[in-house]
Design brief:
about 120 residues, mainly alpha, two-stranded antiparallel sheet
Length: about 120
């Protein structure tokens, strides 16, 4: 390094090697910054794409909830499901009662057949 006194101030004049190191650093930093900008742009594009997908899915969810909750011109799916559940329970209850009746009547029918008092 060379120093010169110039009007009572020290001025540093870098050597050729120092200048080359500084230039290489500037070039490397410029490439690094360009890479950072490219990465930032790709991330920004991905965020925009994800936002558009989220808006698209939001529209689908709104349509689906309209069909499920509001019915979209027909009875809502929630009330239809409730009606089906009630009908299924009623059928199950009827079947259960018939089985209970059959199990209650089965010993009597078997005893009638066994004793021979049952005539056709």
């Amino acid at each position: 390094m060379r120093f010169f006194a110039f009007w009572s101030e020290a001025i540093w004049l870098p050597s050729d090697r120092d200048q080359e190191i500084v230039l290489r650093f500037i070039e490397d930093f410029g490439r690094l910054f360009e890479g950072f900008q490219e990465d930032l742009n790709s991330v920004s594009q991905e965020v925009i794409r994800l936002r558009s997908v989220a808006e698209h899915q939001s529209d689908h969810i709104k349509q689906l909830s309209k069909v499920v909750i509001d019915g979209n011109g027909q009875p809502p799916l929630m009330s239809r499901i409730a009606v089906l559940e009630a009908a299924t329970k009623a059928v199950e209850e009827t079947q259960r009662r018939w089985w209970e009746l059959m199990l209650l009547a089965a010993p009597g029918i078997v005893s009638l057949i066994a004793t021979g008092t049952f005539m056709l």
